[in-house]
Amino acid sequence: MASIHLNDVSVDFVLYQGSARSLKKTLLRSSTSGALKHDAHHRITVKALSNLNLRLEHGDRVGLIGGNGAGKTTLLRVLAGVYEPTAGRIRVEGRVTPLFDLGLGLDMDASGYDNIRMRAAYFGIDGDEIESKMDDIAAFTELGDYLDLPVRTYSAGMTLRLAFAAATAVDPEILLMDEWIAVSDTQFLEKAQRRAEGFVSRSSIMVVASHVDDVLKRLCNKALWLERGGAVRIGPVDEVLAAYHKHNAGGEAAPRDGDE
Ligand SMILES: Nc1ncnc2c1ncn2[C@@H]1O[C@H](COP(=O)(O)OP(=O)(O)OP(=O)(O)O)[C@@H](O)[C@H]1O
């Protein structure tokens, strides 16, 4: 059974380690959220995640909400294993499918077909199973004979079609999505959304970052409100969204777990 456990997870990024004091001062003054700090080595760091605790189990479909820079993308990348926590512990049980940074991991010299096979092999899917799905995947991409050519000959839109089809060829246990699917081609966007919704329903745990309430209400049963890298509130999606909007309408700074 899939599960995600985060214990006191923090992620710090080093932004600046030069000695020009005026730039340092400008950076620190521009930090309205208090997220920028000097570390012990006099470097300026930003705390993208701050002592975050989280437990997700089978059936949890969690929407990440919060203002710009709240830590949503960083959390998704930590869950995907792209970033290591600077502190704390993370345990992820289950096969993770990130539906963001889709182009990562494509072999530009291999053909479209071979990239689909490699992605499946990476997920431990046996060769017969992926071959049995290949016609369906190929039809979805609408790339035709291009699937026999190296990916470096594809346009950006064609690469995205391939990457999306390859990523969604294998049912996920843990599905991670950032801002829904950013596709400029509207005809493909509708197809991609239909495919992703089926994909969501077959996942055990789903985490999606979005600024769009309709998307969150449609896909999620829970929401996690993040500010300054920490959890403000987690609970039923409607309740957390209502609290989030009430706060924003009041123009107050968001409280944080542990704030007085
Ligand atoms: N690679 C990086 N290097 C330096 N700082 C980073 C990096 N990635 C994120 N940050 C910083 O970490 C903080 C959290 O960023 P993150 O992208 O996780 O926020 P977000 O909630 O996804 O924001 P948005 O809604 O604007 O996409 C921000 O202050 C951001 O500037």
UniProtKB/TrEMBL annotation:
SUPFAM superfamilies: P-loop containing nucleoside triphosphate hydrolases (SSF52540). GO terms for cellular component: membrane. PROSITE patterns: ABC_TRANSPORTER_2. The keyword Glycosyltransferase does not apply. Pfam families: ABC_tran (PF00005). GO terms for molecular function: ABC-type transporter activity; ATP binding; ATP hydrolysis activity. CDD domains: ABC_KpsT_Wzt (cd03220). Residues 28-253 form the ABC transporter domain. The keyword Cell wall biogenesis/degradation does not apply. It comes from the Bacteria. Belongs to the ABC transporter superfamily. This is ABC transporter ATP-binding protein. It comes from Azospirillum brasilense.
